[in-house]
């Protein structure tokens, strides 16, 4: 994956995203990591979760990043490719290992342990960007996790946004604030700058309270209106909010019948929403699709495994009855 500026054929992905994807180990049977003798081998990463979700919904998605040329990296690469995501710009390197995370759910609370320092993903730089590839997309989706990984990753994130804007590609930005990666004082100026550069801003309400240092919803709305982006605020009491320069629209959640694993809900939301944008739906309707996808993903273990197909989404939206036999 090297930088080049060759002309793009136009047959590439509609939505491109990039970032860190890690192997994921989870204990079976709801036990704690400390007491489990069996672990499920999965993988996850905000950006690849979104790309897989988009692909399942029928969208053309591309993901790139750096993985170790090791068994975990090869597993991740093949599985993302197997989900129909374009990985032609992803790289397997012998220079560093694939990152690893372990997750347990005890008494209803999720704990994640990361082993990602000096991983292949953390060594990504602007030299790993393909400008023509980004220019050929309709949307570039990034998260605030990438700039938190290292200085070179931060430079790469801003450079990718610059490339997208240069070629008229919409920028979608989910801050995905991770306080295990950096302190809020470090994160705040970086994430707010990326929000200013985006066309679609996808924060959670709790993230906005930290970024804007206020609990006041009216103050938050006025801050969002200073951006040129449309803001889609996740994590309201019972709804997601669409905030534009002159309106705030609340879109109700879909009730999840049985919550199994809440991780991946936000990424599922982004996938559903962005596919709605691709289909040129009104923002409120695109949010409705995102809300539905998020509610379906939490009913399955894993970050992305429960991502629905468009047929499944359409069936729920149109109340199509399931025929068992």
UniProtKB/TrEMBL annotation:
PANTHER family: 2-DEHYDRO-3-DEOXYGLUCONOKINASE_2-DEHYDRO-3-DEOXYGALACTONOKINASE, SUGAR KINASE
Domain Carbohydrate kinase PfkB: 15-309
CDD domains: KdgK (cd01166)
GO MF term (any one): kinase activity
Keyword Zinc: no
Record's keyword terms, sorted: Kinase, Transferase
Gene3D superfamilies per UniProt: 3.40.1190.20
Protein name, UniProt field: Sugar kinase
Family: Belongs to the carbohydrate kinase PfkB family.
Gene source species: Paenibacillus alginolyticus
Pfam families named in the record: PfkB (PF00294)
Entry annotated with the keyword Kinase: yes
């Amino acid at each position: 994956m090297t930088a080049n500026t060759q002309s793009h054929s136009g047959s590439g992905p509609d939505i491109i995203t990039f970032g860190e994807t890690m192997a994921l180990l989870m204990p079976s049977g709801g036990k704690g990591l400390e007491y489990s003798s069996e672990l499920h081998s999965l993988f996850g990463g905000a950006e690849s979760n979104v790309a897989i979700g988009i692909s399942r919904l029928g969208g053309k998605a591309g993901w790139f990043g750096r993985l170790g040329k090791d068994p975990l990296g090869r597993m991740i690469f093949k599985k993302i490719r197997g989900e129909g995501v374009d990985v032609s710009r992803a790289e397997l390197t012998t220079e560093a290992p694939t990152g690893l995370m372990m997750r347990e759910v005890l008494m209803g609370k999720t704990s994640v342990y990361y082993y990602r320092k000096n991983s292949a993903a953390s060594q990504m730089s602007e030299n790993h960007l393909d400008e023509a590839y980004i220019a050929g997309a309709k949307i570039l989706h990034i998260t605030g996790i990438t700039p938190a990984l290292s200085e070179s990753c931060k430079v790469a994130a801003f450079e990718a946004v610059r490339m997208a804007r240069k070629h008229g590609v919409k920028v979608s930005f989910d801050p995905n604030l991770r306080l295990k990666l950096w302190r809020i004082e470090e994160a705040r100026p970086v994430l707010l700058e990326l929000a200013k550069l985006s066309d679609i801003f996808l924060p959670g309400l709790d993230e906005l309270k930290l970024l804007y240092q206020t609990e006041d919803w009216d103050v938050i709305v006025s801050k969002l209106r200073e951006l040129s982006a449309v803001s889609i605020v996740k994590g309201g009491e019972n709804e997601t909010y669409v905030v534009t320069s002159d309106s705030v629209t609340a879109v109700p959640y879909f009730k999840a019948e049985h919550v199994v694993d809440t991780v991946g809900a936000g990424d599922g939301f982004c996938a559903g929403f962005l596919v709605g944008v691709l289909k040129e739906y009104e923002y409120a309707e695109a949010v409705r699709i995102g809300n539905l996808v998020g509610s379906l993903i939490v009913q399955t273990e894993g970050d992305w495994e429960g991502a629905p197909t468009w047929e499944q989404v359409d069936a729920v939206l149109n109340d199509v009855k399931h025929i068992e036999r």
